[in-house]
């Protein structure tokens, strides 16, 4: 069987993902930032989308408000997981389109902090090189 050289991974095909190395991030188009970002209340608090006093409010009510504000696209009530809104091109709401860098990097959600240790294929990345 002949192996094909994959110039860039396909997001929906984890078998095309590449073993992650720290040096990859600086030459990538931030393809991981086009995947759905699942967050919990503590992430929303860190980002500044909710306040500590809201911890006692029903999560569904918080989700409804954040959906109306356009920062959350859905809420999984069973697991208490909010999914951040993505732009029309699937970029995360907090990804700068020109620099391809996170605009809330110091406050980023745990999902992002732990990528690619966790995710669809732990230890692998949907690496796509920047155009030269």
Written account of the structure:
This protein is of the alpha+beta class. It has one domain (14-125). The chain is 17% helix and 11% strand. It has 3 helices and 5 strands. The protein has helices at residues 41-47, 59-69, 110-113; strands spanning 18-19, 38-39, 72-76, 81-84, 124-125. The strands form 2 sheets. Strands 2-4-3 form a 3-stranded antiparallel β-sheet. The chain has a two-stranded antiparallel ribbon with strand order 1-5. Strand 3 (72-76) and strand 4 form a beta hairpin. The longest helix has 11 residues, at 59-69. The mean pLDDT is 91.
State Rg. 16 Å
Number of strands: 5
Mean pLDDT: 91
Please state the overall shape, judged from the principal axes of the Cα atoms: elongated
Following the backbone from N to C, one meets helices and strands in this order, namely: EEHHEEHE
Structural class: alpha+beta
- Uncertain residue ranges: none
How would a textbook summarize the main sheet?
Answer: 3 strands, antiparallel
Walk across the major sheet and give the strand order. Answer: 2-4-3
User: How many separate domains make up the residues?
Assistant: 1
Strand percent estimate: 5-15%
Assembly context of the chains: single chain
Level of helix content? Answer: 10-25%
Distance between the termini: 31 Å
How many helices? The count is 3
Quick structural overview:
The protein contains three helices and five strands; from the N terminus they run ββααββαβ. With 132 residues, it is of the alpha+beta class.
Keywords:
three-stranded antiparallel β-sheet, 132 residues, YkgJ family cysteine cluster protein, single chain, Puta_zinc/iron-chelating_dom, alpha+beta, two-stranded antiparallel ribbon
């Amino acid at each position: 069987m002949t192996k094909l050289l994959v110039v860039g991974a396909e997001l929906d095909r984890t078998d095309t993902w590449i073993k992650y190395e720290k040096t990859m991030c600086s030459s990538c188009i931030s393809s991981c930032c086009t995947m759905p970002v699942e967050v919990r209340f503590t992430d929303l608090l860190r980002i500044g989308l909710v306040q500590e006093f809201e911890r006692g409010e029903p999560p569904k009510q918080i989700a409804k408000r954040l959906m109306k504000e356009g920062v959350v696209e859905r809420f999984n009530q069973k697991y208490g997981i909010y999914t951040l809104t993505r732009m029309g091109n699937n970029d995360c709401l907090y990804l700068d389109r020109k620099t391809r860098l996170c605009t809330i990097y110091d406050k980023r959600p745990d999902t992002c902090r732990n990528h690619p240790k966790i995710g669809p294929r732990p230890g692998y990345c949907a690496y796509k090189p920047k155009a030269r």
